[in-house]
Amino acid sequence: MASLIDQLRDHREPTLLLYLANELPSQQRAELERILTTDADLRHELESLSALQSEVMGGLADLDSATSLHASEEISTRRVIREMRRLKLEMDSKAPAQLEASTLRVWPRWIYPLAAAAAIIFILLGLWGFGFIEIPPAMPGPGRPAWTAPEDDFMNPGLAEMSP
């Protein structure tokens, strides 16, 4: 009982259309008829929907009578069902869409880490070339003096005072 009242509150028009089409269960139909005897607004809305439904059905009947069918309804139904079955069988028999071999690119697995390493090296060289990072030489050698950090680069000022 409460479910029909909630249904009328939330979905008033669809519930009334189900009532007009005689598709409500008998218990809900009896409950709705009881509510209609007491609720004048709901009864007025049902009457307007009923008038609209009869107008639409009359218009559809006029259209049906104006355009005659070339075949009987039974033959038309058989044709539609036959066509649906044919299309279903055709779809089932087709293999899934395959891409051509020329569109597929298969790279060896070793290419991916190699490409990642090359990208990292390229980025580091670019940053070093523009002066964003400074890479000191690894070891002093002949023709290469030992690299010393400038004194203002020390993080701890106490260590800068201690350096010789």
Give the topology.
Blueprint: H1 2-10, H2 12-20, H3 26-38, H4 40-66, H5 73-93, H6 111-129, H7 157-162
Helix pairs in contact: 1-2, 2-4
Count all strands and give the number. Answer: 0
Q: In one word, what is the shape?
A: elongated
Q: Which whole number gives the mean pLDDT?
A: 81
Report Rg: 42 Å
- What series of H and E elements makes up the topology? HHHHHHH
Question: What structural category characterises the helix and strand content?
Answer: mainly alpha
Could you tell me how far the N terminus lies from the C terminus, measured between alpha carbons in angstroms? 95 Å
Low-confidence spans: none
Strand count, sense and barrel status of the largest sheet are: none
Percentage of residues in DSSP E strands: under 5%
Helix content: 55-70%
- Count every helix, treating DSSP H or I runs of 4 or more residues as helices: 7
Q: Could you characterize what this model shows?
A:
By secondary structure, the protein is mainly alpha-helical. It has a domain at 2-67. It is built from seven helices and no strands. The protein has helices at residues 2-10, 12-20, 26-38, 40-66, 73-93, 111-129, 157-162. The relative contact order is 0.04.
